[in-house]
Amino acid sequence: MFEHSKTLAAGAGLVAVALSGAAVAAQGSYPAMAPIEKYRTADEAALARTAAPSSISKDATVLVLGAHGYETAAKGANGFVCIVERGWANDFNHPDFWNPKVRGPICFNAASARSVLPTYLKRTEWVLAGATKPQLLEKTKAAIAAHQIAAPEPGSMCYMLSKGGHLGDEANGPWHPHLMFFTPRLPASAWGAGAAGSPVMGGDEGGVDPATTFMVPVAKWSDGTPDAPMKMAH
């Protein structure tokens, strides 16, 4: 599902909520799922809408975490779908996988809502049904083998511009506003990701999902305020 990327995000290519590949040794320990109440959040629909500019999110469908999976809180009209992802959107080996503090507001365009988001939604149903991490991995492999999880549609992307998110212990908050693009498996070099001076991050890292996530940081949050300058690795 999200094994293709070392970032947190949503769907068969996302859910990639970004930590930019930083070291994780200082993070907390979350060996198993916490009680479900720890993952719930107040005003979830409002937080979900902060993922994108209001010109987009005001007409988007909004999903919120329910007892057995995500439920529709508001029906939209523009094809976008906004949600708040939890830590299990991460790679299976990510230390924040069961971190109950993770909140990742994210807004998918229509293509990614059809081809990326459903993978995260199905994983959430499995999580809420009590599946362990090994069981989640096996279910994901079986779904891929059955062609229930496939490569993202052309044009799949999402917004992650919320100042209110918490993308894990390493990010210690919302990280930076960024766009994510979902493709079939591609090496980083296909987009120049990680090259000196390139703003693009990501690329195929050989995970389970038939997808790759590329991230591009942007200058402003969804409310129009500027982000602090980002220190690039190159």
Question: Strand arrangement, largest sheet?
Answer: 4-3-5-6-7-8-10-9
- Largest sheet, strands/sense/barrel: 8 strands, mixed
Radius of gyration: 16 Å
> How much of the sequence is in beta strands?
15-25%
Question: DSSP helix count?
Answer: 5
Secondary-structure element order, N to C = EEHHEEEEHHHEEEE
Mean pLDDT: 89
Please give the domain count.
Answer: 1
Structural class: alpha+beta
Total number of strands: 10
Q: pLDDT under 50 segments (min length 5)?
A: 1-26
Compile the SSE list and pairings.
Layout (H helix, E strand, L loop, with lengths): L7 E2 L6 E2 L26 H6 L4 H4 L3 E5 L4 E5 L6 E5 L18 E5 L1 H6 L1 H12 L4 H13 L11 E4 L17 E6 L17 E2 L9 E6 L17
How does this structure look, described?
By secondary structure, this protein is α+β, with helices and mostly antiparallel strands. The protein has one domain (8-20, 28-217). It is built from five helices and ten strands, in the order ββααββββαααββββ. Strands 4-3-5-6-7-8-10-9 form an eight-stranded mixed sheet. A two-stranded antiparallel ribbon has the order 1-2. A hairpin with a 4-residue loop joins strand 3 and strand 4 (70-74). The chain is globular, with a radius of gyration of 16 Å. 46% of the residues are buried.
